[in-house]
Design brief:
- With about 280 residues, this protein is α/β, with parallel strands linked by helices.
- It folds into two domains: about 5-85, Met-10+ protein-like domains (GMP Synthetase, Chain A, domain 3); about 105-279, Vaccinia Virus protein VP39 (Rossmann fold), CATH 3.40.50.150.
- About 30% of the residues lie in helices and about 30% in strands.
- It is built from nine helices and 13 strands.
- The protein has helices at about 5-10, 15-20, 45-55, 110-120, 135-145, 160-170, 185, 210-215, 235-250; strands spanning about 25-30, 30-35, 60-65, 80-85, 90-95, 95-100, 125-130, 150-155, 175-180, 195-200, 220-230, 255-265, 270-279.
- Strands 9-8-7-10-11-13-12 form a seven-stranded mixed beta sheet, sandwiched between helices.
- β12 and β13 (about 270-279) form a beta hairpin.
- α1 (about 5-10) crosses α3 (about 45-55) and α4 (about 110-120) crosses α5 (about 135-145).
- The protein is globular, with a radius of gyration of 20 Å.
- The N and C termini lie far apart (about 45 Å).
- The structure holds S-adenosylmethionine.
- S-adenosylmethionine binds near residues 156 and 157.
C-alpha cells in the first residue's frame, strides 16, 4: 500500500478541505482495492482510484464503500470508481489463496494477524470450530499453518459457502475442513455438540447472542476466541462480562487467557478479542 505516495502525488490537485479529509487507508484484496471516500472528496474519487491503480501493479479495480455492512450476511454495498468492471477478488494470505465476490460475501483482510496469532496457539490434533466462516479465511489458514485434526466451517450465506468450497478446493484442504451450510444457532448444540477443542467467533456485531450455543459445541476445557466491537472505554470489561455470564449460566468455569485490541472501528468504538477457557 502506497497511500503516503498517493497523497503526495495528488497534493497539487487537492484543495485545503480535500487534503484535510484525505483517505487514511484502504483494504487491498489482491486485484481489488476497497476504499472509503469522504463526501468532500467525491468529486476526486475517479482520480484517486486511477492513481491507486497506477501506484500498485496488482490492483486492477478500485471500489468505494457506498454504505455500511448490512443484514445477517454482513454484506457491504460497493461501487466501482476506477479500473476493470469486476467484483471478484483474488487474494493471498499466509500461503493460502482466496476467491470471492466482494458484494456477495463478507471478507476482512484486517483479521489476517489474528489468524496467524491463533494458528500459533492451536495444538496438534485439535478440532477447531470456525463459526461465521464466510469464504473460509480462518479454517483454510488454520488447515495450512497448523496440525489440526479438523476445522468445522459453519456459514449461513449460500454465496459465501459457494466460495468457501471453491477455496477449500483451490488450497487442497478438503481432508481438513468440513463445511456446514447452517445456522450456528441450530447446529452448535446438536450436530456439533461437545465436539470442539477451540472455537473462533469472528462475529463482532451481535456475536454475544451466539455465546450460549457456542459453549455447547465446546468440550470441557476448550478455548473460545470471542470478537466484539464495543465502546472504547469499557470494551474489555463488557466482553469479559458477557462471556463470564454465559459460562456461569451453564455452570462452566471461566478463565480469561488473553485480551487484545484488534483494530480501531470508529471514533468511539474499537474491535477487541478475548480468549477464554471454559472448564
Ligand atoms: C463478520 S462475517 C465474518 C466472515 C469471515 N469469518 C471473515 O472474517 O472474513 C460473519 C459471517 O457470519 C455469517 N453468519 C451470520 N449469521 C450466521 C449464523 N446464524 N450462522 C452461521 N453463519 C452466520 C455471515 O453470513 C458472515 O459471512
Amino acid at each position: 500500500m502506497q497511500k503516503g505516495n498517493l497523497k503526495e502525488i495528488l497534493e497539487k490537485k487537492l484543495n485545503k478541505k480535500e487534503k484535510a479529509v484525505f483517505i487514511k487507508s484502504f483494504d487491498s484484496l489482491g486485484n481489488l482495492a476497497v476504499i472509503e471516500v469522504p463526501e468532500e472528496l467525491e468529486k476526486k474519487e475517479k482520480l484517486i482510484g486511477e492513481t491507486i491503480i497506477k501506484l500498485n501493479k496488482n490492483i486492477k479495480t478500485v471500489c468505494k464503500i457506498s454504505g455500511p455492512h448490512k443484514g445477517k450476511y454482513r454484506l457491504q454495498p460497493l461501487k466501482i470508481i476506477a479500473g476493470e468492471k469486476n467484483f471478484t477478488a483474488e487474494y493471498k494470505e499466509s500461503g493460502c489463496r482466496f476467491i470471492f465476490d466482494v458484494r456477495k460475501v463478507f471478507f476482512s483482510p484486517r483479521l489476517s494477524n489474528e489468524r496467524i496469532r491463533i494458528s500459533k496457539l492451536i495444538k496438534k490434533g485439535e478440532t477447531v470450530g470456525c463459526f461465521f466462516a464466510g469464504a473460509g479465511p480462518f479454517p483454510i489458514v488454520f488447515s495450512k499453518n497448523t496440525e489440526i485434526k479438523k476445522a468445522f466451517a459453519v456459514e449461513l450465506n449460500p454465496q459465501a459457502v459457494k466460495y468457501l468450497k471453491k477455496n477449500i478446493e483451490a488450497n487442497k484442504c478438503g481432508n481438513k475442513v468440513e463445511v456446514f451450510r447452517a445456522d450456528v444457532n441450530k447446529i452448535a448444540g446438536t450436530k456439533l455438540k461437545n465436539s470442539c477443542d477451540r472455537i473462533v467467533m469472528p462475529m463482532p456485531h451481535g456475536g454475544e447472542t451466539f455465546l450460549h450455543v457456542t459453549l455447547k459445541a465446546l468440550k470441557k476445557g476448550g478455548v473460545i476466541h470471542f470478537y466484539q466491537v464495543l465502546e472504547k472505554e469499557t470494551a474489555f470489561e463488557t466482553a469479559i462480562k458477557r462471556a463470564e455470564k454465559e459460562c456461569e449460566k451453564q455452570k462452566r468455569k471461566f478463565t480469561l487467557l488473553e485480551k487484545r485490541k484488534v483494530r480501531p472501528f470508529s471514533a468511539a468504538k474499537i474491535q477487541v478479542v478475548i480468549d477464554f477457557r471454559a472448564d
